[in-house]
Amino acid sequence: MKSKKSKDTEDEIIVGLDVGTTKICAIVAQRKENNSINIIGIGKAPSKGLHRGIVVNPQKTIDSIKEALAEAELNSGVEIKSVSVGIAGHHIRCIQSSSTIGINNPDRVIQEEDIKRLMETASLIRIPSDTQIIAVIPQEYNIDGKDGIYESPVGMFGVRLEAKVNIITCLVSSIDDLSKCVRSCDVDIDDIVLEPIASSHSVLDETEKKVGVAMIDIGGGTTDLAVFKKGVLKYTAGIGIAGSLVTSDIVEALGISEEEAERIKREYGYALISEILNDDEISVDSINRKAPKKTRKSILARIIQARMQDIFELAAIEIRNSQIQNELHAGVVITGGGSLIKGTKELAEEILGMEVNLGIPTGLTGGLIKEVESPIYATGVGLILHRIKNMETGIQMSGGSSGKKRSQLTAKGLFSKVKTWFDEL
User: Closest Cα partner for 165 from 115, 201, 204?
Assistant: First the structure.
């Protein structure tokens, strides 16, 4: 029987639900009165109903989510009633837009209502009928010809206000399918967050975001990229190659089971052949369970390196697409389970031509923090930190989970999203 907490305690419980292609992870946190954040429970389950971040088998997805939530409830001793969910995939798009409005107040002081109207105008763009806007992120403001304004212009004087924004879109079916699966597990959704944004909360600090940094989150089904400058998200993209394809390559090349391929990838794998010090022989279980096969670390590394090289070459293209690749003074941070293969950092530096660091979740103060101090939990921890930031600013979830088709967020929802980015500057 689950232990019951008081209502006051229940109000402080925050759950991040990372619904990935290879694993489902639920992390339960408790925010204390002194604003400390304790991890009190973790639940994991194999993900069996997604492909490259998209739900392809709803029932299997529901079963996997239920398994992770049940373990997290048992581990934490609390009943999970709502979660913050991450969304990712190669269907995520970043569109640049701009808008201009006139300030019609008698005193010409820019007010929050003007920013709201500006964002509404910026979001009136043509997008495919099967996509919807999930975030509108202001990049820069211009008041009466004065540019270079990166913080909220509320309170400033002017008659003409212009903004450059990034509009993030995703497939309607993807966000609705994911929402339905989560709600079918008898939990509400607090928020649906773009996973690169969530991960950035846990592995990037504000200085990195201001001076310029690219984050590459190598998951199981997709690799997510996010580029930050001046404290805001400048560009994001999804790459349909990630850790599961590395495992599949090992399966095909060595003729072994997926479980065995995953095991030797973790234990003996290298993403860069030159990083191998001792080219030892590896014993690998065969599929027919007869005599084990033999291979070498260098052979395994050749398989892994070929696919990891593809990931970073595509990431390099997306970083160039951000048009600020020469302004990333903090370099690149890699995170996610795929970043744990030995030699990944060195391969990334070789291909990207800049400093690369491993991103490990931070921002927690107690509880099971040692258990989540791994790139594997970057998104789950980030979802918790994102939710807490929204709670502090009074921002609620804005669309994306009702199950109805929408091509755009409501004006109120868009403005709430925009206010989030003001607070992060």
Answer: 115
C-alpha 251/C-alpha 249 separation (Å) is: 5
Cite the beta strand spans of 144-231 per DSSP E: 146-149, 160-171, 188-194, 213-218, 223-229
Question: 82-87 and 188-194: which strand pairing?
Answer: parallel
CA torsion sign for 56, 382, 413, 159 is negative
Q: What is the pLDDT of residues 94-107, one digit of tens each?
A: 898 999 999 988 89
pLDDT of 425: 45
Band (pLDDT 50/70/90 cuts) for residue 151 is confident
Confidence of residue 393 (pLDDT cuts 50, 70, 90): low
For 272-287, give one letter per residue: b (16+ CB within 10 A) or e.
Answer: bbeebeeeeebebbee
The CATH code belonging to domain 7-89+172-201+362-403 is 3.30.420.40
Q: What is the pLDDT of residues 306-342, one digit of tens each?
A: 999 999 999 999 999 999 999 999 999 999 999 999 9
* pTM of the entire predicted model: 0.85
- The dotted CATH code for 93-168 is 3.30.1490.110
What is the rounded end-to-end Cα distance, in angstroms, of the chain?
45
What are the Cα distances from residue 389, in Å, to 40, 182, 187, 394, 395? Answer: 19, 22, 21, 9, 9
